[in-house]
TrEMBL record:
Transketolase-like pyrimidine-binding domain sequence ranges: 2-168
Gene3D superfamilies from the UniProt entry: 3.40.50.920, 3.40.50.970
SUPFAM superfamilies referenced in this protein's UniProt entry, alphabetically: Thiamin diphosphate-binding fold (THDP-binding), TK C-terminal domain-like
One Pfam family matching this protein: Transketolase_C
Annotated protein name in UniProt: Transketolase family protein
Organism of derivation: Streptomyces monticola
InterPro entries (UniProt xref): PDH/Transketolase (IPR051157), THDP-binding (IPR029061), Transketo_C/PFOR_II (IPR009014), Transketolase-like_Pyr-bd (IPR005475), Transketolase_C (IPR033248)
Domain of life: Bacteria
Length: 302
């Protein structure tokens, strides 16, 4: 199976052929995978080199000129390093674009902490009007990238990861999907955490919602699911607690409990591999089962 990043490069190459309003801005990362696109559209594929502030500024400038920019690099260099430019060049100037990241929270541990970005979604939460997609499978990545490109002049962040669920679902860029129903609580699995969540809650009487789009937050679906039991666990592949406030706002009219599980704030100073980072942050199925079972008032089935 190809990765989300593989699917991004093939999809954006096709989109550049299909849509003359589309432009792609790179900062070296993935340039080798996009050589065909660069050769076919040298006027709309721009590589600024390792200059991430310029990357964002160029994308916003293209938007001001009437194009729909896709801006791409690793998440830590796309959101964290040039955050001021995102805030001012896109937000303050009132223009839209599509930011597509790679690397996730710890996809490449050997790259060290400079290449890890567990706080990217939380950081974008400080800004107004961003749609955030977190696909859990390459098929979903293609769907959501196409959705983002077609989303008028909106500001959209698509967070890609090496981590993937076994199967893609029919995501629509808006709603949470109900994967299974239960009576003892609600577990929201975000993007590539779905497989681990389903393994963790086997035998538990809980509803599982799948979120591949987390901003705007689908409050209506959560309210319906939590009507039976307003005990909510959110399992996110980035900083723990990122969506707690959004869930709390959705349930503000009823007593409720929310537990956010995700990447811990502590820095892991060993490389390891992605699976070891998942386990260290308590996001492997066994750890998730223990933490979810301790929080929800639902005994395991016999």
């Amino acid at each position: 199976m190809d990765t989300m990043r593989d699917r991004f490069t093939t999809t954006v190459t096709r989109l550049l052929d299909e849509d003359p309003r589309l432009a792609l801005v790179l900062a070296e990362i993935s340039r080798d995978r996009l050589e065909d696109a660069e050769h076919r559209h040298p006027d709309r594929v721009i590589n600024v080199g390792i200059r991430e502030q310029l990357l964002i500024g160029t994308g916003a400038g293209l938007a001001l000129a009437g194009l729909r920019p896709i801006v791409h690099t690793f998440a830590s260099f796309l959101v964290e390093r040039p955050f001021e430019q995102i805030k001012l060049d896109f937000g303050h100037q009132g223009v839209g674009g599509v930011l597509v990241s790679a690397g996730g929270s710890y996809d490449w541990p050997a790259g060290g902490f400079t290449h890890m970005s567990p706080g990217d979604v939380a950081l974008l939460d400080t800004l107004d009007g961003w749609t955030v997609h977190v696909p859990g499978h390459p098929d979903e990545a293609e769907t959501l990238i196409r959705h983002a490109v077609a989303a008028g002049d909106n500001k959209v962040y698509v967070r890609l990861s090496q981590q993937s669920n076994t199967e893609g679902l029919a995501v629509d860029g808006a709603r949470f999907l109900t994967v299974r129903e239960g009576n003892g609580g609600v577990v929201i699995a975000v993007g590539p955490m779905l497989d681990a969540v389903l393994a963790a809650v086997e035998g538990l009487d809980v509803t599982v919602l799948y979120a591949s789009t987390v901003r705007p937050f689908d409050a209506a679906t959560l309210r319906r699911a939590a009507a039976k039991s307003p005990h909510v666990v959110i399992v996110e592949p980035y900083l723990e607690g990122t969506s707690n406030a959004a869930a709390g706002a959705a349930l503000q009219s009823v007593p409720h409990r929310v537990l956010g599980l995700g990447v811990a704030r502590r820095e892991l100073r060993r490389y390891g591999d992605m699976s070891e980072h998942l386990a260290a942050h308590g996001l492997d199925p066994a750890s998730l089962r223990e933490r979810i079972s301790a929080f929800l008032p639902v005994p395991a089935s016999a």
